[in-house]
Amino acid sequence: MAEDKSGKKVIALNREARHEYFVVEALETGIELVGTEVKSLRAGGANLKDSWADIDDGELILKGMHISPYDHGNIFNKDPRRPRRLLAHKSEIRRLGQQIKLQGYTLIPLSLYFKKGRVKVELGLCKGKKLYDKRATAAARDAKRDIDRALKSR
Sign of dihedral through CA atoms 68, 125, 21, 147? Predict the structure, then answer.
């Protein structure tokens, strides 16, 4: 876990999310966890790869995130892929629900980190990229790399 300038200790990043989706907006939410899950996160046992968030009965639910079982947790360990409730204001949840229904956006967790001792999830309101968008992004990245190389060699 690396700590950045804002006092965040990053647990897991979803690198694939920025490749597969355009991130329209990012939102910080809390997450409801049990004690052994937090201990496992401190050891770095999380994977956001195939996870997404959904709104069920006015609650924001994170699905598909894997938190490895804690080594010394015995009977207190929960299912590693269980749905977990995200903590956000009701007005934010309502607004996100409208965006999902009307404009076809998806809620994707971008990162999981500790902030002042609490686990936070950076949730992105995303729109899926088409194949040609991914190619254009890769081409722009390669062009920028070539330009930087040329400027450095001069």
Answer: negative
Half-sphere exposure of 24 (CA within 13 A, CB side): 14
- DSSP letter string over 81-142? T--EEEE--HHHHHHHHHHHHHH--EEEEEEEEEETTEEEEEEEEEEEPPHHHHHHHHHHHH
Helix (H, G, I), strand (E, B) or coil at 21: strand
- Give the model's pLDDT for residue 4: 64
pLDDT at 153: 85
Residue 113 contacts residue 122 (beta carbons within 8 Å):
yes
99 phi and psi angles, rounded to 5 deg? -60, -40
Q: Enumerate the β-bridge partners of residue 86.
A: 31, 60
**Structure token digits, residue 23:** 């991130």
7: left (phi over 0), alpha (psi -120 to 50) or beta: left
pLDDT tens per residue across span 8-64: 888 888 888 888 888 888 999 999 988 788 888 888 888 888 899 999 888 999 999
Rounded Cα distance between 118 and 101, Å, is 31
